[in-house]
Write a structure and sequence with these properties.
This protein is α/β, with parallel strands linked by helices. The chain folds into two domains: 352 residues, Rossmann fold, CATH 3.40.50; 113 residues, no CATH class. It is built from 14 helices and twelve strands. The strands form two sheets. It has a ten-stranded mixed sheet with strand order 1-2-6-3-7-8-9-12-11-10, with helices on both faces. The longest helix has 23 residues. It is globular and about 60 Å long.
Amino acid sequence: MGRGEMFVPMVFVLLHLCVGAIHRKGGEGEEGDRIVALPGQPNVSFEQYSGYVTVNARAGRALFYWLTEAATAPESKPLVIWLNGGPGCSSIAYGASEEIGPFRLHKSGSRLNLNKHSWNLVANLLFLEAPAGVGFSYTNTSFDLNDTGDRRTAEDSLIFLIRWLDRFPCYKNREIYLTGESYAGHYVPQLAREIKAYNARTKHPINLKGFMVGNAVTDNYYDNLGTVTYWWSHAMISDRTYKKLLRTCNFHQQKQSNACELLYAYAMDQEFGNIDQYNIYAAPCNNSDGISATRRSLHSPLLPQNTVLRQISGYDPCTEKYAEVYYNRPDVQRALHANTTKIPYKWTACSETLNRNWNDTELSVLPIYKELIAAGLRIWVFSGDVDSVVPVTATRFSLAQLRLATKIPWYPWYVKKQVGGWTEVYEGLTFATVRGAGHEVPLFKPREALQLFRSFLRGEPLPNS
């Protein structure tokens, strides 16, 4: 009997053990985590699971997840964890429903369409809503919503992953990668650092191989400097306002002066005009009354915490509305094993309560990058180049501070004989732009984003022809 013939039954046993563990544990409730089918879902060949993992029993904190296994041969493909940012925004609303997941929401909120460029073509995707208070994730200690931040998010996410792997033992030895965008530029490297520390003290390490982040919040000073520079270089603000911003705002500080905040508000309200800040060349979505519905985001690096002027990790307010219709449906929640404790508020794409009460944030994650590069993790950073919220200039200014040696100089990369963007490979890190993509790269450029993801998983430079 050849190797190929022996491999099939071995895989079957592994899968059987994994599924058996799911049903024995029952998703921390009476019902298992397997999703039979979502309302309005087209037929698919892959398995799906969702539910809760308790990360702090005393406080009653539980994080919600949704796993969509790979469309083919899931047993041979890595596990990829996706996090959205905000802070306070849902990975179900954004990553799963309008970016990399297998389904896209129909505008009626009544059915799902297939995403032909879903990342589950090449990996098993685990969407995590973190921290507690985001999406379906909850806490029974109301004070938690007013007292969270980077540190607790990383700690709870590590506990989630350890306990989730106990529930899904067939993934324990699988290659694991972390991915995300925007404020997940904090979540992802911070969780990677927690995993590294955990692996140093356990006999059963998590097989973390690397991470990839897009349009990522990275360093407070250089992100801010790069953002206002992008606005000026793309003619979104006047010379006068640009010079005033540089003169008035102290980008080294987390807390900005009133004069800086007012100047920032003036730029947005008076000089930007009616544009979508997440893709400055896309038409904004408008309400039925004709008034622009361009999103106010819950995160922009320039503004301090606890201000109403920040911006959200997301793109089109219309798609956000579709998600809020669909995921508040009782039949959808039942199918997802969600809201089992009857959370006392509606599911929303982003939590303003969490965002306004974010209590700790690292001024820079560049020291974490240095630590994880030294540890040998595969690290990729990408940037949609028409995003003005966390723009390409911000990312380039930040990464330049790492002072990495260049392995492969700057070159254009291609998809279907078209330039997908530009890239440079450094010692320990790959940087890539995605041409014409906004803040949510896989939403605007799904084919290019899938190529980017394939190359990342293979550890190969992006195609140069």
